[in-house]
Amino acid sequence: MKLLSKLTKNGYQNYIIVILFFAVFQILSSTGHISNSLKGQLVPIVVYVIMALSLNLVVGISGELSLGHAGFMSVGAFTGIIVSATLQNSIPNGSIRLVFAIVIGAVFAGVIGFLISVPVLRLNGDYLAIVTLAFGEIIKNLLNITYVGLDSKGLHLSTKDIASMNMKPDGITILNGPMGALGTVKISTFFSGIVLLLLVLIVIQNLVASRCGRAIMALRDNRIAGEACGLSATKYKMIAFVTSAAIAGSAGALYGLNYSTLVPKKFDFNTSILILVFVVLGGIGNMTGSIIAAALLTVLPEMLRTFRDYRMLVYAIVLILVMIVTNNEKARDALTGLLRRFRKKSVKEGTANE
Amino acid sequence: MSKREEVKLVNVPSPNFIPERDMGKPLVLEASHLGIDFGGLRAVDEFNIAIGATEICGLIGPNGAGKTTIFNLLTKVYEPTRGMILLDGKDTHNMKPAQVCEAGIARTFQNIRLFDKLTVEENVKIGMHNHIHYGTATGVFRLPKYWSEERRAHEYALELLNIFGMADLAGEQAGSLPYGAQRRLEIVRALATQPKLLLLDEPAAGMNPSETEDLMNNIRKIRDDFQIAIMLIEHDMKLVMGICESIVVLNFGKIIAKGTPSQIQNDPKVIEAYLGTRKEEQ
């Protein structure tokens, strides 16, 4: 028991959960025990888990509500796609190319995060949330008019159409405005995703347990007292925001290189909210909760295929039930009471049958 | 052109005073003509004070006199409308609260402001924040400096907590502590910033007489051990008269009396502010 509390205090349980998750699915898929549709979900699961962790850094640890997280994800995704396409001839090895794509995607998203954080962090609470929402939409719309092409002379960029890029006839289009990325070579793997996830966990958990993380949480709990203790509120809120944006960018790069086509519209407000739902359901500030909630809720729609047309309706009901049960004491008592009665009844029936 | 003759300048008498033993040491705080307006309301006006290096100064006055406002001015929660604050000889004009803390003022709050969700030890470590020397990247990658600095911080935090005998509470969540312990933790956290001047806003509020007695001894002990100045707001007259070496009385945002405890106790203006004037018997 003492060992368990020591494990949870240092967040080691999260590494164990991730490694177990990887081991189980690796064994299941190599022995052919999981369906193809679930197999295709493995990378997205990892991506959404990383997204949830990254958003939890802003919402849970820094205490600011961000509604534009899909924007950072899309910056990472399309940067990663461009990097991978550009390096395709010089680095034929997919895994090495993926590392480059993820790192550069994270840096780009981090830079965008920094630029956005300058005006955003002057605000508080609801206002901050609404402005992040606006920036998320701005990023999406900018990507909607971005055309990127590659020919023997290098990268070409336009905001009008393919023709205005003036590419040579041998040029290929990487980003095609609202049509997004077409013909991406898929290089993301479940294994690379798990490695990235473990790295992200290390960064977030070590950050939270350091001098910097303490300052971020102190400013969340009481800004005035934090400043009276000599903490610069802007600096630490910015560190949390930019780190979170960079992590979202790395997840985005992994996501973008998992599909052959990807449209900017994928990263709209709904995606931002979906990630927020993972964080809220998992418990704000609770990293283990984020991992489990993101993983379960990403596969849930797949699992609910038996309900056919009512799939999303059932999904919504499940969300509401989980929210009520985890946050309402009375509901929790009622549910545990119900379970206990059910168990007693089945035990009774069991004895009666004998 | 003839060269101007050098003139020797001497100090003019100041309206302020400090304990004799602090003469010759730099003043920890000097505020002159300090004032702030909220809209049309003059909340504080013409506030002059000097505090010696190891002085314990009391700031008293009826409710709404502007005592906490003065603390907020000194720590730059509010920017003063008028006047000047010299902290250890440095002008604090345009400084932010965080910079004032680094310059040497630490404070506690009237309505306790702890970092509720963090542990007692973490609260103290946040006070030490600017004295723990490693960067964000060192923390993320857990380089050797992280371990050595964190160990040092841990030991110093426990040492500070031991002033109030709270070292065994180090792992508790700060928000779950009893009221008195929360007040004491705030003082420890303020001390952890290694201030030159400690501002205590009603440290004895809600404490029983024996707790107040302990607090008095501890405040004196802190002054002696750390050799810092302490300024406190307090309504408990036993505490104020017991430990303060100088007292400033404030009413309606203005100083109405300054002096030693015995001078203050006999000052007719102070008696009037606290008890009201006696109606002339007809």
Number of strands of chain A: 3
Helix content of chain A: over 70%
Give the count of structural domains of chain A. 1
By CATH reckoning, the class of the largest domain in chain B would read: Alpha Beta
Radius of gyration of chain B: 21 Å
Strand order of the largest sheet of chain A: 2-1-3
Largest sheet data of chain A: 3 strands, antiparallel
Q: What is the alpha-carbon Rg of chain A in Å?
A: 22 Å
Structural commentary:
The complex is a heterodimer of chains A (354) and B (282). By secondary structure, chain A is mainly alpha-helical. Helix content of chain A is 71%, strand content 4%. Chain A has helices at residues 2-10, 12-30, 36-61, 69-87, 94-120, 125-144, 190-208, 211-221, 223-228, 233-256, 269-282, 287-303, 311-327, 329-353; strands at residues 147-151, 154-158, 172-176. In chain A, strands 2-1-3 form a three-stranded antiparallel sheet, with helices on one face. In chain A, a hairpin with a 2-residue loop joins strand 1 (147-151) and strand 2. The model of chain A has no long low-confidence stretch (mean pLDDT 88). Chain B is of the alpha/beta class and 282 residues long. Chain B has two domains: 27-104 and 195-275, Rossmann fold, CATH 3.40.50.300; 116-194, no CATH class. In chain B, the strands form two sheets. Chain B has a six-stranded mixed sheet with strand order 6-7-8-3-9-10, sandwiched between helices. In chain B, 41% of the residues are buried. The model of chain B has no long low-confidence stretch (mean pLDDT 90). The interface between A and B is medium-sized, with 26 and 38 residues.
